[in-house]
Predict the 3D structure of the following.
Amino acid sequence: MVSLVTLITGYDYTCGAPLCPPKHPQAEKIVVRPQILCRAPVEVAYYGAMIGPIDICAHCAAPGADTKQELKKRFKTVLPVCHICDMAGKAPVVARPYGKASNY
């Protein structure tokens, strides 16, 4: 974890770029999905990795976001969305519906 914090603070990161230079000792150990766009939602893996706060908005990464409880009854995975993104009409990020596949 300390190595990851050092990487994040020691280098400037741009969406879609490698997290560290190719010859860095951690380059083979840390996987970053290439070609990711800044407008892409926070990935589900982030929330399960426990490397940072898990109450960040899946769309804008604002802290203090909530998950919609009614969606949690229908989907196994529901990512948090902040009030601003919710009011802007951004769709909740959901996956793995219970029972039959359905539209929300």
Notes: The two ends are 37 Å apart (CA to CA). Residues 2-10 form the longest helix (9 residues). The first strand starts at residue 75 and ends at 78. Helices lie at 2-10, 44-49, 69-72, 83-87.
